[in-house]
Here is the input.
Amino acid sequence: MAKPLILVAMLVFMGFLVFGKGMIYQEGSKVSAEPKDIQFTKTTNDIQEIVVKPTEYSPNNILLKAGTPSILNFKTEKLGCTGIVLSEELGFNVTLKENTNNYVNIKALEPGTYHYSCGMGMFKGTLTVTN
Here is the structure.
């Protein structure tokens, strides 16, 4: 009797992994800005480009100036685990679109090191903010 229950539990779990994963991130994701929505001002840094590959973010460290809002462009090619990028420290969780530019606005930050990673935490990057 226990074996059918285990089988049902495994099927439900697998269904959640396959079909539910995207929904969790989609609901928790902030929509990245469209290019027309990006407003450049004298206090805005240039766009910092991060090339997203299936197994890495390149470069994996970006230097930013403290106290200045920034824009990160996660430029995608073919996506793997890196298709979801999130940072609790920076307050974003974004599902990236493949083969395009994905803009994320970053508020002015204090000096320090801030981390971001893929959804599973396997591939990582940092923002180093200096005066």
Observations:
- The two ends are 65 Å apart (CA to CA).
- Confidence is low (pLDDT under 50) at residues 20-31.
- The longest helix spans residues 2-28.
- Strands lie at 47-53, 56-58, 61-65, 70-76, 84-87, 92-95, 103-106, 112-118, 124-130.
